[in-house]
Fold this protein.
Amino acid sequence: MSIRLFKTKGFAVAAKKALIHDDQLLAAFSELCKGQADDLGGGVWKNA
């Protein structure tokens, strides 16, 4: 099963401004899926 990721327009603009590329976002999402991050609450996640 493949997973499709979507960015909101506002997030896409902010990520572009911060020079965050799609491959970096995909890597971060992969870490989340593997359980390698901690949920700090309020939609905030931190690398474990």
Q: What stands out?
A: The radius of gyration is 12 Å. The longest helix spans residues 22-33. The longest strand covers residues 37-41. Strands lie at 37-41, 44-47.
